[in-house]
Queue: 2 jobs
Job 1
Amino acid sequence: MEEAASLLHRFGDVASFYAGGTELLLVMKMGLTDLSHLVDLKRIDGLRSVSVSNGTLRIGGAATHREIESNPLVMEYAPAMVSVASRIANARVRAVGTLGGNLAFADPASDPATLLTALGACVEVRGTGDSRRTLPLEDLWVGAYQTALDHDELIEAVTIPVLKPGTSVAHERMKFQERPAITVTVSVTAVNGSIVDARVVVGAVAPVPRRLARAEYALVGLVAETTEAGVDLAGDAAADGVQLLDDSDEAGPYNRQLTRILVARTARQAIESALLV
Ligand SMILES: Cc1cc2nc3c(=O)[nH]c(=O)nc-3n(C[C@H](O)[C@H](O)[C@H](O)COP(=O)(O)OP(=O)(O)OC[C@H]3O[C@@H](n4cnc5c(N)ncnc54)[C@H](O)[C@@H]3O)c2cc1C
């Protein structure tokens, strides 16, 4: 990892990390880069491993979507991640595309980005020498296709706190072409039949996935009888609060309506499952 980072440092802007190549090679074929050096991360020891310790699941940055969807530890400690990874793209992309590549490319149409933001995940970042830092996912992206990573920093791993008891997570998206047009994750925690904590994250319609505080507020305190009205309120709050990538007269109202419907639907699913447990 240190060698990979130092190669990026040495060759500067004409070098890039390379993992599955599912984004990078498309960009190169479109002639949007003038890269002369690719630094392959896939064979670096430990960069694809999955482990659990101290209540945290840790997934290596070069783990592929396929490896994630079939890993028993991920199945046990973050089942939502398995279901999301298994629905990404198609079998060919999942076989080579990596979690680190997905997050580092910062395409707004990312399923794991939205899910992992709701799960309170962090990225462990490695640079040259002994430079290391940990960033909450919310601080990784500064805009569409833009991250807070330095040129020579790589995502070593993603860490996901294991869910609190009584917590259910639902992730939904709608896609009309290859990539999702909207991604929504809702995570709720129920205690004695009532929702005591909620996280609502919307992505793809927005430049970066973000939590929507007013939508979360609408879900806290719900019980079975008030769920239907509460999820509609959360949908309205999300539609009002989301910062859209395209807020033009043509697309804005449509994207807000998409947000309203999908947040209500995903929240209903998460709450019903949390109240059943
Ligand atoms: C047809 C198609 C459909 C898709 N559908 C979906 C979908 O439904 N949902 C979804 O979420 N995604 C979707 N994707 C995106 C897919 O998940 C990503 O293409 C994939 O995960 C990127 O990983 P990669 O290893 O191929 O990245 P690469 O192409 O190798 O790299 C992408 C970028 O990340 C950098 N990079 C790679 N690894 C690291 C690292 N560890 N640290 C720092 N920088 C790194 C590279 O330098 C490059 O800039 C789709 C992609 C395609 C082609």
Note: The mean pLDDT is 96.
Job 2
Amino acid sequence: MSAPMSDPVHSVLDQGLRAMAGFGGDLVAHANQIGASLYAPPRLVVVGRLKAGKSTLVNALIGAPVAETAALEATRVVAVYQDGAPSRAEVVGLDGRRHPVPVVLGEVSSFPIPDEEIAYVNRWLPSAAIRDLTFIDTPGLATLTTKNEAATRRVLIDGFEQTRTASVDADAAVFLFDSAPRADELAFLKELPLSPLNTLGVLSRADGFGEGAFGRRDPIEHAAHHTATLARQLGDTVGAVIPVAGLLAQTSHTGALSENDARALASLADMSPLDLLDLLDDPAPQRVSVRVRDRLLDLVGEYGVLHGRHIAIRGAAALNEWLSRRSGVPALYSVLSSSLSEFAVMNRARRVLDKVDNLAYTHPARDRIREIAHSMRRHPAMLRVSLLGDLQRVIASDPQAPLVAELRTLLTARTSAAAVGLPDQATPQQVASVAQQRLQAAQARAVSTVTAAEDAALVNVISAYSALIGAGRR
Ligand SMILES: Nc1nc2c(ncn2[C@@H]2O[C@H](COP(=O)(O)OP(=O)(O)OP(=O)(O)O)[C@@H](O)[C@H]2O)c(=O)[nH]1
Ligand SMILES: [Mg+2]
């Protein structure tokens, strides 16, 4: 294990694991193994309907064309992309066994075991883009190809409870919709063992939203407008919804676009939109060859052709910059690296604690391990980690419970004042006084709660208000 981190949550867990290793014997190996997940980057899984644009988005985020996105080729297995050299891959079987897979010219060749026996594929490649966050691409959820859906379910949901080795241990999720979410997708979202603060909605293929590129409204603006409605509908499953055109970002971020492409696109700049629309459908176009036209469509889609041709006059670099900005991926990235990462890190802390608990069930030194788990949990720095777990469990048992809003406020507030619903300029005494009222209300509710999840959550909510009262007195 490396030196303790400055982050208080990490320090608490690190010290606990060191104490556990101090008992010697096989506990050294256990502590190291659990510690490895503490120091690895949090894991973000990309899920959604078949062909929603998941692999395209993963490529755009990684900045390399590593995930399969061919129009006819669906993603068949769960793939975990992490930073590491040399570029290599291994298949993890449902039985937990690992098999190395040859990577030739950046491509993973065939798998040594049948798809049905694969839990996921680990893929390492040297890339700064995945240093702080590991990305997981998944087969699409669909009614037609239930085989693909089964592969995703067993590592995210079923795997979680039954065979823990087959779980990819996601800490956060990006859920892609390319239109209104379907009932089965919403059901899947609810089953994910993650809180809404760890889940981000993406309205994908935004460049084709509504009537598409040649419609009356700009599809990306239209999609942005629609995300507000979606965010309201999905409030108890996702924290926010962002419109994204992954294809535009994939082309820009992977360096797929050449100066020749920009020139070809610029040569269409003087056409009227109607003539351009004809050219896109024409089996024998005049201005450019079929091959060039189809390549442009593959690279930037109809939207990129229609609007990018004027930018392309300034060259490939300007076009790249425009594509990236228009794609919405930089905006997505900033959410990923701020709030979503923060909750992902907290979720991972919770997984570390769960692993210590599990060990206490099976190990002969169970009492000492349990004592360590207790002392880790009791540390004030761990309160937010507990509250995040409470949020997920309370929503799972009753999404309408009043505690949901209270937990969310406590978890997302940036100041003590905001944590009790006061404006930021409130004095510490005012904060303490409202916290006192909330504390009493929580104590009164603790007598009459409906579910075990609420019972457990109220204990932590009461601790949170007590801490706010204590801070106000100081
Ligand atoms: N116009 C446009 N096309 C996109 C976008 N994202 C993906 N596509 C296209 O949609 C098709 C499917 O994209 P993928 O990224 O493979 O979708 P997926 O969700 O990974 O699909 P499965 O793995 O089969 O479930 C490809 O032909 C992509 O080029 C987008 O933002 N805009
Ligand atoms: Mg895919």
Note: The first strand starts at residue 43 and ends at 48.
